[in-house]
Specification:
The complex is a heterodimer. Chain A is mainly α. Chain A contains twelve helices and no strands. In chain A, helix 3 packs parallel to helix 5 and helix 4 crosses helix 10. Chain B is 31% helix and 26% strand. In chain B, the strands form two sheets. Chain B has a seven-stranded mixed β-sheet with strand order 5-6-7-3-8-9-10, sandwiched between helices. A three-stranded antiparallel β-sheet of chain B has the order 2-1-4, covered by helices on one side. Chain B is globular. Classes of the chains: A mainly alpha, B alpha/beta. Chains A and B meet through helix 8, helix 9 and helix 11 of A and loops of B.
Chain lengths: 294, 236
C-alpha cells in the first residue's frame, strides 16, 4: 500500500508520467471503440508501428536536410509528432481506400504494412547519422520520461480528440453503422470518415510517442473488447471502454511502481487479465442461467 | 410527380448497367421494382437513392432532398451485429436527417422515434437490444427508423428477404398500410412476385438492361411473365 500512497502524493517524482499514462488509458479506448466497430482491429497493430516509422523518418530527414537535432528539447517532440502523424495518416487513408477496393486480403495488406514499418523504423535510426539511444526512447515510447511540457501537449490534444468524438458522436456512429443511410440522409460520409481518421491519427501518434506501439495498441483494442462484453448501448460502451482503460493504466502504474516492473507491458498484461476475467464471468453467468431456462 | 428519371444511365466505374431509363413516380404510388437477379434493379434503386452517381441524364425529385430526405430501409443483413445498440438507438438515427452537427438528440427526436416504433407495433421493445430481435422485428425497426426521417418517399431494399412467411405477410401489410393510410409513396425492390402482386399498383420491371413501367395487372400477368421483354428501352 505504500506504493499507492507514494504515487498519490502531490510531489510524486513521476506524477506527470502517471497522469500521461492514465490520460492515454482513458482516450485510446474511445478511439479504439471505432476500430472494433468498424472491424479495423488489425489496423491497430499496423498504425502504431507506422507511427514509429514516421518518427524515425522525421529525424532522418531533419538530419539530412537541416543537421543535428537536439535531444530532450521541445522541438524534438514536435518533430516526432509531425513525423508520426503524417505517416500514420498516409497509412490510414491508403489502407482505408484499399479496403474499399477489396481486391487483396485485408490481413495480408496490414501484415505487410506492419512488417515494412517495423523494418523501416530500425533502418531509419541506423541510417540517421545522429541516431542515438535517446531517440530510440521516443520511438518505443517511454511514458516515464514524460515532462511537464510533453504532458501539456498530450493533455491538450487528447482533450480535443475526446471533445470532438463526443460532439460528433451521432454522425460518427451513423457513418460507421450504416454508411448508405448516412448518405441518403444527406450526411457527407467521406467528411466524417476523414474526421475520424484525423482523430485516430492524432491519438496513435501521441500514444506511440509517449507510451510506444505496444501500449497504444493495447489500449486501443483491449478495453473496448472488454467493454463490448458487458454493455448493450453505444454511450455506455464508449464510457465503459474509457473507464476500463483509465483504471487499467492507473492500476498498471501502481503495480509497475510497487513491483519494479516495466510499465508498458504491465499495463497491457493487466488489461488482458481484465478481459479474461470479464469473459470468464460472462461465460459463467450464461452457463449458470442456461439450466434455469429449460 | 415525386421522382422523375429522364434518359438516365446508371452503372459502376463509369460503365453503364442501365441506359436510357425514363419514368415518373407520382405521389402516393406503391411501386415494386422487380426483375430477375442481376438484371440491374439494385443499380436502379441505388441510383434513385443517390448512392451511385448518375452517368448521364437526370433524376429530379419533387421535394428538397436536403430538407426532406427519403426514408431508406436497407437489407438487414448489411448491418453489423457488433454494434451495441438498443431498438430506440437504431430508430432515433432516422431523426439525424434534420439534426445539424453539434445538435444533440433531444426530447422531440426521442418522442418521434417512439411514435415511429409505435406505428410499426414495437414501442414495447424500445429498450431491447436490436440484435436480440427476430428478423421480422428487426425489419420493422428499420422501417420505423426510415419513418423517423419524416419522409414523403420510402424506399425499401428486399424488405422481406430472409424472414419467415408469417413475418413477411405482416411486413408487407405494414408497408401497404403506410402507403394507403399515410399517403406515403413507396418503392420497394423485391423478387417475391407473389408477395407484391396483390399490394402494389405499379411495377417497374428491370431485365437485360431494359426498364419497363406498367400496372401490376399488365406486367405481372402470367402470360406476360412468361414472355421475353425486348424492343423499346422504355415503355411508359
Amino acid at each position: 500500500m505504500s506504493a499507492l500512497a507514494d504515487i498519490l502524493r502531490a510531489d510524486f517524482l513521476l506524477r506527470d508520467a502517471l497522469i500521461g499514462s492514465v490520460l492515454l488509458g482513458l482516450v485510446c479506448p474511445l478511439v479504439g471503440v471505432y476500430f472494433l466497430l468498424r472491424r479495423m482491429i488489425f489496423l491497430g497493430v499496423a498504425l502504431p508501428q507506422l507511427s514509429a516509422a514516421g518518427i524515425g523518418l522525421a529525424f532522418l530527414l531533419y538530419s539530412e536536410l537541416i543537421g543535428r537535432h537536439e535531444h530532450g528539447v521541445e522541438g524534438e517532440r514536435l518533430l516526432a509528432l509531425a513525423g508520426a502523424f503524417a505517416i500514420t495518416m498516409v497509412g490510414l487513408v491508403t489502407l482505408a481506400a484499399l479496403e474499399r477496393g477489396g481486391r487483396v486480403m485485408v490481413e495480408a495488406r496490414i501484415g505487410t504494412v506492419f512488417a515494412i514499418a517495423s523494418a523501416a523504423t530500425m533502418l531509419f535510426v541506423a541510417v540517421d547519422p545522429f541516431g542515438e539511444a535517446e531517440m530510440v526512447n521516443l520511438l518505443k515510447g517511454d511514458i516515464i520520461a514524460t515532462t511537464r511540457s510533453s504532458l501539456g501537449l498530450l493533455t491538450t490534444v487528447l482533450a480535443m480528440v475526446t471533445g470532438l468524438l463526443f460532439a460528433f458522436r451521432k454522425e460518427l456512429l451513423l457513418v460507421s453503422f450504416d454508411r448508405e443511410m448516412a448518405i441518403v440522409l444527406g450526411k457527407r460520409a467521406e467528411l466524417w470518415d476523414a474526421l475520424l481518421y484525423l482523430l485516430i491519427g492524432l491519438t496513435i501518434s501521441l500514444g506511440v510517442m509517449n507510451a510506444g506501439p505496444l501500449v497504444t495498441f493495447g489500449f486501443l483494442v483491449v478495453p473496448p473488447l472488454t467493454a463490448r462484453l458487458i454493455t448493450r448501448r453505444m454511450l455506455t460502451f464508449s464510457l465503459a471502454a474509457s473507464a476500463l482503460g483509465g483504471s487499467t493504466a492507473f492500476l498498471g502504474f501502481w503495480a509497475a511502481y510497487g513491483l519494479d516492473l516495466p510499465l508498458g507491458p504491465t499495463e497491457v498484461a493487466l488489461s488482458g487479465l481484465g478481459l479474461l476475467m470479464v469473459a470468464f464471468v460472462r461465460w459463467a453467468i450464461v452457463w449458470m442461467r442456461a439450466p434455469a431456462r429449460e | 410527380m415525386l421522382v422523375a428519371l429522364d434518359d438516365v444511365a446508371l452503372g459502376y466505374d463509369g460503365r453503364p448497367v442501365l441506359e436510357h431509363v425514363s419514368f415518373d413516380i407520382e405521389p402516393g404510388e406503391f411501386v415494386a421494382l422487380l426483375g430477375p437477379n442481376g438484371a440491374g434493379k439494385t443499380t436502379l434503386f441505388r441510383g434513385m437513392l443517390g448512392l451511385i452517381p448518375v452517368l448521364s441524364g437526370r433524376i429530379t425529385y419533387g421535394f428538397d432532398r436536403r430538407l426532406e430526405p427519403p426514408g431508406y430501409v436497407p437489407q438487414k443483413e448489411t448491418l453489423d451485429p457488433i454494434f451495441p445498440l438498443t431498438v430506440a438507438e437504431v430508430v432515433v438515427m432516422g431523426t439525424y436527417a434534420r439534426l445539424a452537427p453539434l445538435r444533440p438528440v433531444g426530447r422531440r427526436e426521442r418522442a418521434l422515434a417512439t411514435t415511429c416504433l409505435d406505428r410499426v407495433g414495437l414501442a414495447h421493445l424500445a429498450g431491447h437490444a436490436f440484435w436480440t430481435l427476430s428478423g421480422g422485428q428487426r425489419q420493422r425497426v428499420l422501417i420505423a427508423r426510415a419513418l423517423a426521417a419524416e419522409p414523403t418517399l420510402l424506399l425499401l431494399d428486399e424488405p422481406t428477404a430472409g424472414i419467415d412467411a408469417g413475418a413477411e405477410a405482416g411486413i408487407m401489410d405494414l408497408i401497404s398500410r403506410l402507403n394507403r393510410e399515410r399517403g406515403l409513396t413507396v418503392i420497394l425492390v423485391s423478387h417475391h412476385l407473389r408477395a407484391v402482386r396483390s399490394l402494389v399498383g405499379t411495377v417497374i420491371w428491370v431485365e437485360d438492361g431494359i426498364v419497363t413501367r406498367g400496372s401490376t395487372a399488365e406486367l405481372l400477368a402470367p402470360e406476360r411473365l412468361a414472355a421475353v421483354f425486348g424492343g423499346m428501352a422504355i415503355k411508359r
